[in-house]
Amino acid sequence: MILRFYSSSCVLYSMKKQGMKLHKMLNPKNKRQWYPSQTSDLNILPTLNTLTKTQRVPDNQGIRRVAVLNKLFMKHITDIMSTGTVSMDIIGRGIEISKVNVAKDFKTINIFWICKGDASDKDTDKLLQTIAGPLRHELSTLRLMGEVPYIYFVKDKQESQIVDIDKRLLQADYGEDYTPTDMGELLKSEFTLNLKLSPELKAKIKQLEDRHEIFEDPIPEMTNSVYGLDHTKIMNRLLAARKRSKDAWENLESESPVISYRTTNTSPSNIDHKEQKKEIAEFLIKRQILHNKLQRARRKQDDTHVEDEQIEETNEDIYEFCDDYDDNYAVDYISEKK
């Protein structure tokens, strides 16, 4: 049988605990946490800087990364649009990409394309927006980044303005007397008068030009001194040093008895091919004779070596026979005495 006893202590009858419980019963309040209030920011209207403010400002390393990514995306996007699966949709439209710009927060890629300034630009813009998704998928397979940003095709404003100006210049009215000229003819050193003059006025102008001689200013000599350095003097000193070294080599070749392997200055037309063939034949004959002599000398050395070995073997046999004879004679002599 288990007996349970209820015990009491002085903590239960503490006056402080009883006072705290009584205070909570008389003044009931919930526990509240303090949160920073944003009332000061609610009254401020959003500005252009706050709306376009990026979450982080890229440092020098981030700027370099953006520049590298721009080049990589420019290369791969043009390759995919010309040879990839996307090229089947845009073939024949003559779309030209001018530049690729990755945003500083690495969330978007703006691809700038050159428009033609006609009605086909709207259709081209719609078509490019439809291929942005497949193009992003193909770029993700190349692993250029961990996550490829969203792609947006944007018209190049500078190129579009140039196209617009060219279009307006073609439609402009320059008058009846306008004659189109080449751009190279516009660059002239002297001014010309395009007014139609009478023959009398032209004759008077010619008389005035004949009376007064026109003195042209002399053209100054061209100097080679850049940053205070006389380049002509330096080049002359270098050429003189080069000539001295060349003359020293020529004198050494003429005086030294050593065989030189340098090519001679004789032209190939002065060489007699018949004499050259004759000298080569004589050289080969002499070489064959010398080779035969060396072979004979080697054979003689081999023969003498064999004869010496045979003589040594016969001498050894004689010495062995003499030793055996002496031993047998000594044994017979001892047996006879006994």
Automatic annotation (TrEMBL):
Coiled coil: none annotated. InterPro entries: KH_dom-like_a/b, RbfA, RbfA_dom_sf, RBFA_mitochondrial. It comes from the Eukaryota. GO terms for biological process: rRNA processing. This is Ribosome-binding factor A, mitochondrial. It comes from Pieris brassicae.
